[in-house]
Amino acid sequence: MSEPKLVHKKSFQVVGYTFKANLQEIEEKQLGKKTTERLKANADNIQNKIGNHIYLIQLYPMKEHFNAHTDPFTQIIGYEVSEPSDLPPDAIIHHVPENDYVTYTHHGLESELYKSYDYLYGKWLGESNYQTLGYDLELWDERYKPEDTENEIEMYVAVKNT
Predict the structure, then answer these.
(1) Residues 71-76: contacts with CB within 8 Å, 24+ apart?
(2) What is the pLDDT of residue 120?
(3) How far apart are CA 46 and CA 15, in angstroms?
(4) What is the pLDDT of residues 40-69, one digit of tens each?
(5) Which residues constitute the domain of residue 55?
(6) In total, how many domains does the chain have?
(7) Confidence bin at 33 (pLDDT 50/70/90)
(8) For residue 65, what is the domain's CATH number?
(9) Residue 63: what pLDDT?
(10) pLDDT recorded at residue 62
(11) Cys staple from 157: which of 30, 77, 96, 136, with CB 3.0 to 4.6 Å?
């Protein structure tokens, strides 16, 4: 298992699609998969893309006892762009601010990703001098093979020093 590390990321912009749901709804309705398919189908219509990697951005309500399984939160799935222009129908622009992140590489099936989130949000944050800022990112690049044990997902949790 790799160790989490702190990194500083400059701000960037993503063009893609968004929805709001809880984890149970996302699984049952396959919202993430359908949104990713829609994004890929419109990839040629997204101007100024930087590479073919995809970001999943998850924005959580800053409420006590938030539970992603039952409480809705916002997901954005999109491509990083140098400058947004001429958006496909229903696409949005999301600005990710410059920030500090704890980053961690998940190795293994996407269905086991919850273990990496539990580790980062539970153990690592619990033992650190950092607190979450209410959002995280996943980077899906050429290593992203969700159904494969060789799958790798780069995770970023926005944090600030307490």
Answers:
(1) 71/22, 72/20, 72/21, 72/22, 72/25, 73/20, 73/21, 73/22, 74/18, 74/19, 74/20, 75/18, 75/19, 75/20, 75/21, 75/26, 75/31, 75/32, 75/35, 76/14, 76/16, 76/17, 76/18
(2) 95
(3) 7
(4) 999 999 999 999 999 999 999 988 889 999
(5) 5-161
(6) 1
(7) very high
(8) 3.20.80.10
(9) 87
(10) 87
(11) 136
Please name the residues in contact with 26: beta carbons below 8 A apart, sequence gap of 6 or more. 32, 75
Strands of 12-21's sheet in order across: 5-9, 99-107, 152-161, 130-140, 49-59, 73-81, 12-21, 92-96
Closest CA to 30 of 134, 148, 146, 118: 146
Q: How confident is the model at residue 114, as a pLDDT?
A: 94
135-155 per-position pLDDT tens digit: 999 999 999 999 999 999 999
CA nearest to 93, candidates 132, 124, 136, 48: 48
Tokens representing residue 139 in the block: 């980077």
Cβ-contact 71, 61 below 8 angstroms: yes
- Record the pTM: 0.95
Question: Taking the CB of residue 122, how many other CB atoms lie within 10 A of it?
Answer: 10
Q: What tokens appear for 39 in the block?
A: 């994004």
